[in-house]
Every structure is written in C-alpha cells, then in structure tokens.
C-alpha cells in the first residue's frame, strides 16, 4: 500500500525537528497527556512530577514531560479556544502517528489518552463554584468539527437536532448549527469516579456573548442561557460552559484517541456567584486527574 506523504506546507517541521507551534520533538510526547488552558497552570501540574525530562515554551503553548508515580505524562497549555485545540491535537497526533523523517503515516496507530483540566461556568443549581465536572458529552458552538469529513460519524445527530429545535435558532446565530460529541466512556468512568459530576459541557466561541453574558451590548438571543439551562435530553441536562472541550472530544474521536474534559466551576450563572480565589482550589482537581490518568 502506498503511504500517505505529508508535504512541508501541510506538516510544518522546525529546523530542530520539532513540530511547528508546540516546538516539541516526537520523542518528548508521552502517551498520557494533560491539557490546560492557562500556561501558568502547566507548572502547577508539573510541580507534582518526580522527574522532568523536557520543558518547551512557544507562544501560549508551554509543555513539560515528566513522571508522576512512575507514569510518563506530558502537560501542555493550549491557551483559550477551540482554534488552539485544533493546533495542539493535530500537532500531538502528528508527533505520535507521523514519521517526521519520511513524512508518512506510521503503520500502527499510537493511541493517546488526553484529559483537559480547565475552569468553567456552572449552569445548574447543583453545579456551584468548586464543583468538578467531567464531560460525558460536549456541545460545540464553535463550528470547528464541521471542517472534517467524518463529523457526522462521530456526532450525536439526534441530540444536535433536539438542541437546535429547543433553542429555536435560525439564520446567523451559531451558524453552522451546534455539534454534539461523546467523550471516551471508559476514560470518563476512570477520571470522574464517584466525586465528579458527569456533565454535558457546551464549548463556546467566546466568554461573553456566546456564553450569554451581556455587558454593554445586547445579545442576539437574550433567552439563550434560560433555554440552555432547561434543555433535557435522555435524562441529561447541560451542566457547564467552557471554550475547548467540543473540539477536543471531536478531534480525538476522529483520530482514534481517548479524551475528556474535567473542569472546576468558578462562576455559577444561575446563582450569579463567582470564585476569584479558584487558583488555590484547582490543585485538588489536578491531583485527582494525575492519580487517575
Ligand atoms: C476562559 O476564562 C478560559 O477558561 C476556561 C475556558 O475554557 C477558557 O479557556 O478554561 P481554562 O481555565 O482551561 O483556560
Ligand atoms: N470559563 C468559561 O469559559 N466560562 C466561565 O464562566 C468560567 C470559566
């Protein structure tokens, strides 16, 4: 069989042999990966490592590979948004599954296990500040997955339709329509265990308008959050808003990797309370994920 070749313009490799944005070389990527949004959170995760074998910083992408209880783990910051998840997951998949010398796909899939640790807004009375939510499903208000051919094969199309009907959105708002993807069920069971809420997470293309926050300018749908909080599908409710989980779940499914997102609620949109001291508490979530990954 002829192997697929990836041209220099499609897979950009730096002169030192590292991948374009992450600046990580193939030998430094572990099979177990933790993603965080905030570059400053990388050191908090890595502070639990017994040993560090590499550390690279490039733009918002800060990466450390090391060992925790003997397990080899790579932690990388993605910055904010699904657009950065497209970069990080494609480059990590390339590091794992493309031979950088021949620029061809490797014969066997190397499966990665990816857990995002983030912060989020809670959308239900039972998700107050401090709650840990592990995403069973992610809803993408970002549109990223629609650029990939296999999108329909990995999405929950009936739930997408039910959500769109419920929201009653037509025209420009959130066009193209939201997509819905499952996280890896085995990974969710292991990471969420019995002390995290198993939730449905909406990844938004912004922090303000797309999450129904109105400051000085009005929203296209002022009832957006009220409708999202009320939506129910097969006994599931939407639990939280953040900005990356949909692209992570979708790309991981398309590429054959295992992924989920765990977030700590730092603002509850129903009670209108927030926790600005969350940086002290997120370490508890980090320790749980490090133990369970
Ligand atoms: C917005 O404040 C950011 O916080 C959340 C959102 O997804 C977005 O990235 O996650 P992180 O705390 O991981 O950045
Ligand atoms: N991150 C988000 O994206 N939204 C919130 O409300 C809090 C954290």
UniProtKB/TrEMBL annotation:
Pfam families: PNP_UDP_1
Top EC class, one word: transferase
GO molecular function: purine-nucleoside phosphorylase activity; uridine phosphorylase activity
Coiled-coil parts of chain: none
EC number: 2.4.2.3
Gene Ontology BP, a term: purine nucleoside catabolic process
InterPro entries tied to this protein: Nucleoside_phosphorylase_d, Nucleoside_phosphorylase_sf
Catalytic activity: uridine + phosphate = alpha-D-ribose 1-phosphate + uracil
Protein name: Uridine phosphorylase
Organism: Marseilla massiliensis
């Amino acid at each position: 069989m002829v192997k697929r070749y990836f041209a220099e313009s499609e897979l950009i490799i730096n002169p030192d042999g590292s991948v374009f944005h992450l600046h990580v070389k193939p030998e430094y990527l572990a099979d177990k990966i933790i993603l965080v949004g905030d570059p400053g959170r990388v050191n908090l995760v890595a502070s639990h490592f017994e040993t560090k074998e590499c550390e690279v910083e490039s733009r918002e992408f800060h990466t450390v590979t090391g060992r925790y209880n003997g397990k080899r783990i790579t932690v990388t910051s993605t910055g904010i948004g699904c657009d950065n998840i497209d970069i990080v997951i494609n480059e990590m998949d390339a590091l794992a599954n493309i031979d950088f010398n021949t620029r061809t796909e490797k014969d066997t899939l190397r499966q990665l296990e990816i857990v995002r640790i983030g912060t989020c807004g809670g959308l239900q009375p039972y998700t107050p500040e401090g709650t840990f939510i592990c995403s069973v499903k992610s809803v993408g208000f970002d549109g990223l997955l629609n650029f990939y051919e296999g999108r329909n094969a990995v999405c929950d199309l009936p739930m997408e339709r039910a959500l769109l009907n419920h929201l009653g959105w037509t025209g420009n708002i959130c066009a193209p329509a939201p997509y819905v993807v499952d996280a890896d069920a085995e990974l969710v069971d292991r990471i969420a265990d019995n002390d995290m809420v198993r939730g449905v997470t909406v990844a938004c293309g912004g922090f303000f308008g797309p999450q129904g926050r109105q400051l000085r300018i009005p929203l296209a749908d002022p009832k957006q959050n009220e409708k999202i909080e009320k939506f129910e599908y097969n006994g599931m409710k939407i639990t939280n808003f953040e900005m990356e989980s949909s692209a992570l779940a979708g790309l991981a499914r398309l590429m054959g990797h295992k992924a989920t997102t765990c977030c700590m609620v730092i603002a509850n949109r129903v009670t209108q309370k927030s926790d600005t001291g969350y940086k002290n508490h997120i370490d508890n979530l980090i320790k749980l994920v490090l133990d369970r990954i």
